[in-house]
Amino acid sequence: MTEAAGRLNGKGMSGAALALHLMKLRTFIALFAVLVFFSLAAPNFLSTANLILMSKHVALNALLAIGMTFVIITGGIDLSVGSIVGLCGMVAGGLILNGIDLGFGYTVFFNVPEIILITLAVGVGIGIINGLLITRLNVAPFIATLGSLYVMRGLALLSSDGATFANLVGRPEYGTTGFATLGAGSILGLPLTIWILIAVALAAAYIAGRTPLGRHIFAVGGNERAAGLSGIRVNRVKMFVYMFSGFCAALVGLIISSQLMASHPATGETFELNAIAAAVLGGTSMSGGRGTIGGTIIGAFVIGILSDGLVMMGVSSFWQTVIKGIVIIAAVVVDQAQRKLQQRVVLRQMAGEG
């Protein structure tokens, strides 16, 4: 290789490396851009009260997106999370208002902590069903969770004949009061919803970065066959990620019902799309094997700030949907470009060393 060619190749390498670095930082760049834009375009956008309110909105999508991130990293998808939100909200509402009828004139009522645990167990149980469909019956994740989407939404509607469980105040004599604390409570001036997000995010980040299970999740997404040959129990890993996704969806269903003090069977419609958008925007690859919890949370903030900022500017909800779609497409395009550029940089480095 001549000296001139070496200099030219070095410039190409440095340019490609810079472009690759910027692509990896795309979520931070997007967050900074929307913050600057809306702080200039919408009055009081950066006020403390508005930031806390936006964080409460973002927390719901971020919780769903954290579970979705694990699923996507393994190369799967979970389209049922929105329906799980609706069904679990109805489960909690039904238990508070009606308890469980055992027949013969006997009805069992549970206190609020027990109702929360039962509802979370329902979400995990639905995740187990999704996992079994995918691992035991070899149903494609898209089809399995799409079917679950319809089944769980139908069950939510059947639970009340399409009606709303309203006024979830509970009855003191049955010990069902206090449900509002989950959605309206606060600790040290921050809403309890945000603390829940912090706890779940820290737990998920620890699993992803500090445990063998986390390494197995990435290995399955990177190359499932190689992971299986290396001794990783692929099916167990997949079961876990769908169970965790179901847990996060159930938690969101509880929080929304607590905030509204009502449960509606249509709650959670299209939530799965926002969760996928946040994960992809945060750097999670749709082909599996790559993603971070921190990136997903930032992606959720970008989606949430974009939504709330457009509302404050008076932009039509129809245009909001269009803009969100463009953001999702752009995130996927950049992700594909990053993969190709990274492969090109690696090949050039290998050729240079050779």
From TrEMBL:
Matches recorded under Pfam families:
BPD_transp_2
Identify its membrane topology class: Multi-pass membrane protein
**Localized where?**
Cell membrane
Q: Which residues cross the membrane?
A: 28-46, 58-77, 84-109, 115-133, 140-159, 179-208, 240-262
Name the domain of life.
Bacteria
Which UniProt keywords are present, listed alphabetically?
Cell inner membrane, Cell membrane, Membrane, Transmembrane, Transmembrane helix, Transport
Name of the protein in its database record: ABC transporter permease
Organism (species): Ancylobacter oerskovii
